[in-house]
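request received
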Amino acid sequence: MSDNAARRLSRMFYRISIAIEAGKDHLSDLDGAIGDADHGITMSLGFMAVNAELAKLNLDNTLPSEVFAVAASAFLDAVGASTGPLYASAFRRAAQALKKDECLSPADQAAIVEAMTTGIKERGKGQRGDKTMLDAWVPATEAAVNARARAAGGPEMWNSILEAAEAGANSTRSMVAARGRAARLGERSLGHMDPGAASAVIILRAMKDTFDEGEREKSGPR
Amino acid sequence: MTVKTLSARKNGTARAGAEAGTEPIPLRYGDDPYVWACWLYYEDHMTQGDIAEIMGISRATVNSYLADARARGIVNISLEPSRLSSLSIAQELKRHFGLHDCLVVPSDDNTRPLIDRLGGAAAQALAKLLKSGDTLAVAWGRTVLAIAEQASVPGLQDVTVVQATGGTAANFAYTPELCASVMAGAVNARLVNITAPAVVSTAEIRDMLLREPLIESQFDALGKANKALFGISSLRPNSTIHTSGFFESVSLQQYLARNAVGVVAGRFIDGQGKPVAGPLDDRIIGISLDMLKAINLRIAVAGGFDKVPAILAALRGGYVNVLITDAATGRGILNADGVTELDQKLSQRPKIDHRAALPSNFRTHIKKFLNDPNDVVEEMLDGVVKAHAGYIRPIKGSHRALVARTGPRPGKVGLVIGGGTGHEPCFLGYVGKGLADAVAVGNIFSSPPPGTIFQCANAASGGQGVLFVYGNYAGDVMNFDMAAEMAAEHNIEVRTVVTTDDIASSPIEDKEGRRGVAGNFFMFKTAGAACDRGLSLDACEAATRKANARTFTMGVALEPCSMPQTRRQNFEIGPDDIEIGMGIHGERGVIRDKMMSADEIADRVMDRIFSEMKAAPGDRVAVLVNSFGATPLMELYILFRRVEQRLSAKDIKIEANWVGHYCTSLDMVGASISVLHLDNELTELLHHPCDTAVLRIG
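response:
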């Protein structure tokens, strides 16, 4: 197999970085409405640092769990902020989950989403309904767990994950923020999508595209 | 659009009436003024002023015709494909390897040898990158000489060029001495040669030579380099490294056997960019890889397909942050590192920009003193470290973690403060004797990461524990908590006081949820004094908590601030609106109101403060009237005047006051008022001497 698991993950981070970069201004605008307008810049900085650090790895003898571990510390060191600890904890949890099985099967992919959500929840001590990124991550995880339970294939699973995340992010428009800087705005946070939830959807879409592509290569004509 | 066309016609007729000579639209353009304007501009190369004259319309209308013509697709501007693809490759290289900058020479132009073309491109880049006062370390090689020969950067002052390696007697045209001296001539620089051989016979001779005062001083000059220019050599049989005879071939084989793939500034590296040990290591006189990595701007110029593994290794090792190469090599490097999206991207058609043209006097960006917006924090810190060298120094070379020169000492509780940048002089201006011992610096409006904060805790620790004091923001709390966990693992006891002085940010029932703003000033002062007096960690924490509980701040913004990266305002505020309850990050306030007089604003703030501060007649307070960045002292004094009136009317005495820029929010227009309700202990701590860049008492 020319395309090993670590390489796929490295490409996944690369895609995330491009997608975040493309959505940078939009994310910052969302943040300007209810926060300090830097969410797009911070996320883009973090994923650029992840890419630069992954570029230094020899991916031919790197385990997927190591890719996530490297991503965790690169992201944290580059940004700090609130997204730093949250996504660093997410990646660290994903690394731990992958140590049990490094082959990146659809079940592993579901485990990644689940572990990332756990990491974010633990670090931010938040929950669904707080108008944060968890409003996208928690439904995405539920979709992943359900898909795994009914032994759905990769593409089907990722469709349901993304659908759930998008619906979750949209639902933040009608929420009043309970955490983060937006919390202090009270009702004025109503009507705006949470930028953290919006970037979570971008990340999940890039993950979906990466894993779907792997699926197409496997089943496509030779 | 319709409006514009109509007014243009009106203009046209008006002027046609006035000047009988104005032509109607010539037949061949049909009835389309857009096509006519475009033809005159793009085909006849006329200026917009001349076109206005001929068409009998205003210059602004010509300008909007040209812009509309692009939006409507009448004119398509296309980049020549090979140039477009080299731009895309440069952008991907920059992104993928986190480079500072990247320049890619198009591959189609085969009229000149690659080395000449790279040399020419690098010479042009050098004109942009090299600045007065720089010290440039110059390595040797064919490419480097090609750059030096084509470079010409006039008008620079106080530039030094240092030869990066020792010299050689070898019989080739691009020796280290020659490369450095041609470059020095091209940029009008002082030249420092390394007057020792690049490779000597034994390690003892090398050590002896390095101890010679003359050579020592030359190495000192090399150590001051802030920019470096070098080629990257492969270890293929026909490479410069082999053919020059610079290194003995026996030794070369040994490096090859240990998986060396390239040479950077005379040092061997493997595929991951790690140094490869070998027989020459102790016999080389020249810049080391660690020295190279410490240089701020590291410009590598290299191309050719055989060099792909060597360049990739140099990039992975972090030796390069400006890469100049050609399109084929650039694409090769990306493909070798598994980047394939680029090829799909290059085959896509460029998008057409349909945005409507804006009038030329419409401002979309705020003017700022900037170089590269991405470097704004680093460059500011560079300036801060130099400007306040008497007070602070970097911990382990990092400007993100700064420690007081006279601060930490055994037996004293260490005080660590910190937060995002954009609030200057917060937080780094409050580091020094009698105040904070160390400060952790984040990105703009973003908490520093835990590693940086831990370094500060470590540097501030005097064995009696460390106190963290910072504003209450979710990001700061997470990062400082992680740092406290790291400190605990290193047996440093950490206590934390999260400041919550902004009374507008949450109702009083949720006091703990409030954010920390300019009133931080009083908490830092109290904590610094308590620590400096040698109080226990418990006592320091208790005093700081008391100051926090008795400090009340409220801010008002008149205009938003703008981020350096976007140079755009980060929220909108109506022409007659103000934001009451503004924080220090440009977050929206809690209430939006109509603009009112200074006294009315001060009263709104003081009324809120009095509703929470239970001060009796005769009590004493400290007052801070703080600018958010763009509000001048003149207006701050007007506010202070009213604050003083309100306090004295209640017979509350101002024990001490500060008026000025103490905790800003970039260029926001606005101000905050903080009042600290003093008691005896806090008064004593307030007057305790301190000496920092922005606050000196006693």
